[in-house]
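Q: Fold this one first, please.
A: Sequence and structure below.
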Amino acid sequence: MGKSWRPPTVDIGWAAYVSPFLLPISFFWDIFSYWRLLLRFWCSSGADNHQKNVSFVQEQVRAWRKKGNGRKMCTARPSWMSISQQKLGYKDRMFKVKVDSLQDIVNVDKEKMVVTVEPGITIGFLNRALVSMGYTLPVVPELDSLTIGGLVMGGGIESTSHKYGLFHHICTEYEVVTADGEVLTANQEVNDFLFHAIPMSYGTLGFVTSISINMVKYKPYIRLTYRASYNLDDTVQLLDTETHKKTANDSVEGIAFSKHTAVIMTGQFVRREEVEKEKINRMGLWYKPWFYQYVRTFLTKGKGEHVEYVPTLDFHQRHNKPTFWLSHVWLPWADGPCARFLTGWMLPMNHQLLQLVKETFIGVDFADNCVLQDFIIPIQHIKLALELNHSATGIYPLWMVPARLHFPTIPRTLLPKAGDVMFVDVGVYGFSHLPDWAGRDKTLRQFEKFTLKHNGFQALYAETLLSFDEFRSMFPRVVYDQARDRLPLCREAFPEVYQKVSRNGRKVGQAKDDDDLRKHA
């Protein structure tokens, strides 16, 4: 049945001591933020204040033209609010534009089934608000603290992505303040060049001030089926079969616990009357086991299908409490039965508070054996990708989520090189304890070269060591470059996306910015 998996022993250091004090602060802050959002929506203050918020952004952009002194622009959002492990020191030398007021729901159009929101609202707050009205989104990334703007401009994926694509594929319109201080609306019919360039642009085309997203009717339960696998070939075959199943799985997801052991989960959203009540699992209750630990128990039950019904909101938030499987780093005691019963109601912990403490008092670097990376690979190469991870990092659990990236509405130059095939996101999150660990940078280069060779993509939130030519090869550039040429002052106002996401690009960007500053001195 394969080697059993145990939580890795890591040097948790300061985080284990600080986190118990941050937990109650995190809990009450999240409650306050959620009810603030709902009250503002019910009172229509979000919609009423939206134009004022946009005008404030415009004023700052126009001020940049007078006071920028050659600096490029970025948001004033501090780096501790980002999920990225990258050092974002580039913001210190840029003209910062405050966008923190853009955190509200602007409109819910129940006829068109579209919700319009400001980019700073998080997916967790938005989804809970929509569920209270009987709606949800086709793609709901699992970590509540991810912002809608970040999911569009940095990428977002979920277990429904094999049907709907990445998060930006469910978006219908963007409102953008450009470098000349004007406001543009971009959709499939109006300014379509900008509409298709915004995703993955990392804030280098303008300041997005609102995003319109397709909604779907909320079904209260998901019929979840667990299938254990004890062989790598079986895992790959099972993932492929369930992803392409004609009976339309609404959700497909896999967690590997070793090279040869994994559990593949599929689900269909159902109405209340379709539920077998004796099979209900309210996994969102505070004392319940963390999701990945519960999933691991199916390895002891042998082959076959194990079915249960999970409340949909619990399913959406299944990876929240354990932060997939990283909460052990800062809460090594929190998954025990007593700890879950006594403190589970305060989870998940707002990771931004932890980031703030870390950045303020500890420093921003991560341990060399820490890997936080997502690689999106054509499904026909997934076995090779899993073998590479096993030999290069040995990190488990490993997340596997299929995604559709080929849509008829996408410009030809943006279609993936691999063609109209399914991709799989391989999420590598954790600490390597291989005795012959090659180091983070060398290992990352192994993954990057593999991803390039097999026409895949690397998540932009994570560190990248790609050269500029490699980056241009991985991410189609025609639409993006045309948008930067067509938008007034764009190249003067915003750095190239490579200069923001790449360590090498940030060094080049700093040297170039220093030259620009000297010219304006």
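Q: Good. Now the second chain.
A: Here it is, same layout.
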Amino acid sequence: MLDFTGKSLNDLGAFNECMDLGKDQANYCTMEFLYHSAMARGVLPQYVGVCVPAACAESQLLNSTSYIVYNMTQLNINTTNVSFHCQIREPVPLGWGAIVAIVLIALIASLVIIGTVLEGLDMHRRNEELRSISVSGTFQQYQAIPETDPTSRSAQVLRQDTLPINGEGAMPKRRESKLTIFFKCFAIQPNMRFLIADNTNNGASPLASLNGLRVAMMAWIILGHTTTYSMYPVGYDNDLEVSSRVMTARSFQVVPAAEFAVDVFFYISGFLVMFMLLKELNQKKGKLPWGLFYFHRYWRLTPVFAFIMLVYTTLTPYMVYGPLTYQYRGAKTDLCLENWWTNLLYINNFVPQSSGAQCMGWTWFLANDMQFYIFTPIIALLFRKKRMGGWVLSAFLIIFSMFINWFLALKYDLSPMNPNDDQFNSILYNKPYARMAAYVQGIVVAFLLQYDSIDLVSNRLVRYVGYIVSFAVTWCPTYLTTSFWEAGGKWPLMSNLMYITFSRTGFVGAIMFVMYAMYKGHGFLLRPFLSHPFWVPLARLTYTAYLLHPIIIFVQYFSTPQIFDMNPIFIMQHYITNLVLAYSVGLVFHLAVEKPTANLERLLLPHKK
């Protein structure tokens, strides 16, 4: 058994070999105690895996803690900070939540199969009828157009683009029942066609560059989470090297700077919501069905969100197996058993108060985004009624958000770039009043494009100076943080205040200028690249990839047989794996849940043409 026990701190021993000895002979236990980490600027757990006789109880192991640690490290530790977590060998029965999730998955899979078969049979029938008409000589230019929307009118009635010769041989119009249309909402063929369909006119649309931007920002977020989510609570076994060399390297600063990608998503959301809202208000003379306006947003986000939360809470604990399995439930999924309802109400950035107690903690973004969405019509209506009022309100909200960041950072002595700082996250990081500046910056660009036909960047000198300034403004908050880590994770008060107050707004302002130039047809090589149709399907999978990628990371990290050694190869290997899996699994959830529920909305609430 000693051969299967860890020989140093953060050595988890041989988990599988110990478990293979049998429950009557041995048991595997993880010893955990707390220590101060220079990397985390706080307390992180340290682990040792021990293989002990089956008769040993956890209370007996606690009495031997000091002896075990001292013989490994020559360190004396406080045994009150130590805990043992022994593996449960008996199979864990499925709970009612897991059973509900499995039944729901089976139901959705059945709907997908039925819808796909019906769509396949319908496509076969169309082809047969087209061949028969062509052979009879009465067909002139009939074209069967594959539908990307199974609930559209042309999916219910066969489309006839030109009349047959002399009006003979007309294709029969077949109306489908509501039940058939319901099943076809889940059909893979039209949903996949919609996913890959290019709605940007081969990249010529002024808004096409947003697709590439969304994919790039999501890839950046996944990179940041790949690294930071392995720090907390699992940690690294080369903590000293990480804190002294890795985190002070200039090339590493792009990892913690991934938080700016979140603000770019707020910018994109504010821009698109306001752009489309102003367009509709102008078309309908300021009158909109506001109930449907809010219902559409809730229905757009919630079904796939709730389904993934159900799978995460009830099924993924059965996918995790390793020395740190006990942490997955305690630190992750169990939180959803208590606070799942706050996510569905989109108040999880306020309730519970501690960010560490939130269910699916990364979804605080959705709560902020929904809260911004609720109040966006007020700004839009004010802008249509009195344009100057819209400008003044937008400027006030941006300045107010920056002031709130400065005030709270000063009052609570907050320091940035610490993903393990619950106080910083709970008071500032995930609150709408601290993050709304980026959203309003998107609203400002929508104002400019909808109501101002003047190209503010038509002058080449203005554009190039703007590009240089934008590059500098994005470079500074990204890479100047090297001094933060070199100083042991602590800046002077004024440096903290300046960074927290201006970094996000400045970063988004730089992106805002570059995107505005691309909207106006400029951008040289960047615009064709970001506007390429290749990004369209990946951009449509961004939402499911965002919801799923932390779960994929957690399942891998909490199943690890050994604590990670952080190095560039580790980061790139896990990053590529997480990126590919996030979009691959996201594709499944998009085709099975996200797109079908969007189709159902069109079926239940038909849009007026």
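Q: Anything worth noting on the second one?
A: Confidence is low (pLDDT under 50) at residues 139-147, 153-171.
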